[in-house]
Amino acid sequence: MKCNVTPVVAQWKSLCIQNFYPEFLCADRSTALFIEFCNTLLAIFLSKAVITIGYLRKYAPLHPHQRQPLDDKQIENSAGGYVYPVSIWTNLDRFLILGTEGGSYYAQEQDLTKENVDSVLKCIVEDGVYVVDRIREISVSGRAPKNDPALYAMALAFTHGNADTKRHVQKVFCDVVRIGTHLFNFVAFVDGMRGWGRSLRRLVGDWYRSKDDDALAYQVLKYQSRNKWRHADVLAKCHYGENRGLYRWMKGLDTEKRTVQRTKDDGARLSTTYDATDALPKLLAMRS
What we know:
Blueprint (H helix, E strand, L loop, with lengths): L5 H14 L1 H6 L4 H27 L17 E2 L5 E2 L4 H11 L10 H33 L6 H13 L2 H14 L3 H12 L6 H12 L3 H10 L2 E2 L2 E2 H7 L7 H6 L7 E6 L5 E6 L7 H6 L1
Antiparallel strand pairs: 1-2, 3-4, 5-6
Helix pairs in contact: 4-5, 4-6, 5-6, 5-7, 6-7, 6-8
């Protein structure tokens, strides 16, 4: 705010002439020296006035500093400023679309991941079925550059969700886990969250059962291993396998007629002969 200082200057000069000028004359001082003295005092007075106004202007209720909250509803963010918090559902969308890889400019990756996972867990407790639907919608629509956050959230929902949430995960699982890489990533995530119970074994086994031989052969040939997981490892975890050429090929077993020798508890030898499996799909037959 600007102010007119001309009346102040005039009043100051008048006071100086009345009080100090006679003393200057008695002390044999010149008029020029008196004028210089008055100007110096005036400059000091004006600087003090500006400083007084300046520190008051630093506090403006409508325009506070970025490190000061506007009201009690704002919270401190990772940068030290204050912002209005978003809902857990907005955080869910941000996690599914953006993920937390690499962190942000102000937050480390581990801290940011923990904050988002806690928010996803709150959403699962409040409405797990909606969380699964949201995971599927964002994953299928291609809004996220990577599918890993959706797979991680799916693993969280299947681990911490209620019975309805888990049934819904089984319903949309193949829509989110579309290729072999997705399956390996999901298995890596869920393996660190829970044990391999019957429901998880059925969930993973259904991914294999849902595909015909040609489609499954394409998946197991193109995506043979990811994140230290192979199809043989996954099939062993879910206790799934059939006496078919495709599954024996994934496990690295012979598909021809074979005889298996077993030793019984009493030490006797037992021989079992298995017929040759069905023919391998064309893709695998060409590779063999």
